[in-house]
Specification:
By secondary structure, this protein is mostly helical. Helix 2 packs antiparallel against helix 3, helix 5 packs antiparallel against helix 11 and helix 11 runs antiparallel to helix 12. The two termini are 41 Å apart. Belongs to the V-ATPase V0D/AC39 subunit family. It comes from Piliocolobus tephrosceles. One of its GO terms (cellular component) is proton-transporting V-type ATPase, V0 domain. V-ATPase is a heteromultimeric enzyme made up of two complexes: the ATP-hydrolytic V1 complex and the proton translocation V0 complex.
Length: 384
């Protein structure tokens, strides 16, 4: 009965999305892209794929940022087509996906406004998936002096205002003083990660209320993403120049759910260097092996100061987590009648765009030997 109700409301949109799966770049198409000598060649090759003539009107020479933005615009167009036809609760689910990009857009606009960038330049660089009309208000506000206006814009005029409200209320009861300190270069990344934590927890609670196959598939993905965030925030802080006091702020960025939560998260909270992280993950084989695989990357940064030879193919934690997320999202397509496939498609498409941007950068830098670092989507399995 549950499947009948699902198909009557969401079956058509899921079918469309499964059709989108065939639009991912193939192994042969990636091969052609890696053989391109210029960005104009790459643009021509993309025109023969599902991307079509999406950059036909762009003048030459084309920039990597333009390629990235146009790819994102195409994905956002397809996403909004799905969202425009979705019924509840799928529409709210899709809104949660868009809110992640809204957070990135708001933070980017705040940073750009602090750096005196023009509103036109800032708005041209936002992620179209996270666009909302009130973004223009952010580019025109005085973030350094007019705290009341900042509060009005962030708390009232943005769809993610509840996450800002939560951040402000948990840091200090005096909102005005807090606004004057949170909008500076030192705290901006802390703000981004704290907002992402609030969004992730909110999204997970929504998934739990949905229940059924969506909770099973999407719950597993979000629990894994929560764990990835704990590991990423931890390694980035202990391998940075942040003071111990600021490193403690990372604990406030850990999501309150996931496979590591609560025992593993509590152990990681107490870590202060790579060795203690290594020990904290001993009871979690998958993450322990993941850390073993990437720890040389962080040792590489230390060895560079000693003029030791290092392997440029060593992967960072973020590189490995991208691979893990791709596999998780590919698996979501193996089951039917759940919302997880919509999230999976977005994340896989984002990775494909990262692949295209990486190839573009390597062509521009004349470093084709590094192009192989891309992560193909739905790569054909080779027979053993």
């Amino acid at each position: 009965m549950e499947l009948c109700f699902y198909n009557s409301k969401n079956g058509y949109l899921e079918a469309i999305l499964r059709g989108f799966r065939s639009s991912f770049l193939t192994t042969e198409e990636y091969k052609k892209l890696t053989e391109a000598d210029t960005l104009e060649d790459l643009k021509s090759i993309l025109e023969d794929t599902d991307y079509g003539s999406f950059m036909m009107d762009e003048p030459s020479p084309i920039a990597v940022t333009t390629i990235a933005q146009k790819c994102k615009e195409k994905m956002a167009h397809e996403f909004n087509y799905i969202r425009a036809q979705a019924e509840e609760p799928l529409r709210t689910f899709l809104d949660y996906i868009a809110k992640e990009k809204m957070i990135d857009n708001v933070i980017s606009l705040i940073q750009g406004t602090l750096n005196k960038k023009s509103p036109e330049e800032l708005l041209s660089r936002v992620d179209p998936l996270g666009y909302f009309p009130q973004m223009k208000s952010i580019t025109s506000m005085d973030v350094q002096n007019s705290h009341d206006d900042v509060l009005k814009v962030l708390l009232i005029e943005t769809p993610i205002g509840s996450y800002f409200d939560k951040y402000l209320s948990t840091n200090t009861p005096n909102e005005k003083n807090n606004v004057s300190t949170l909008l500076n270069d030192m705290d901006i990344e802390i703000l981004r990660n704290t907002l992402k934590k609030a969004w992730l927890e909110d999204f997970y609670n929504f998934i739990r209320k949905l229940g059924g196959k969506t909770e099973e598939v999407m719950g597993h993905i979000l629990k894994s993403v929560a764990d990835f965030r704990v590991l990423s925030v931890t390694l980035n802080t202990i391998n940075s120049s942040l003071s111990l006091e600021l490193q403690k702020d990372r604990n406030d960025m850990f999501p309150c759910f996931g496979y590591l939560y609560p025992e593993g998260t509590d152990r990681i909270r107490k870590c202060w260097n790579n060795e203690t992280v290594h020990a904290a993950l001993e009871n979690y084989p998958m993450y322990y092996d993941l850390y073993e695989e990437c720890k040389q990357f962080y040792m590489k940064n230390e060895n560079m100061n000693e003029n030791k030879l290092v392997d440029n193919n060593i992967k960072s934690l973020e590189d490995l987590l991208y691979v893990k997320l791709v596999k998780l999202c590919e698996t979501a397509f193996d089951q039917h009648c759940h919302f997880g496939i919509f999230y999976a498609w977005v994340k896989l498409k984002e990775q494909e765009i990262r692949n295209i941007v990486w190839i573009s950068d390597m062509i521009l830098m004349n470093r084709k030997e590094c192009i192989a670092s891309i992560i193909p989507i739905f790569e054909p399995q080779t027979d053993l």
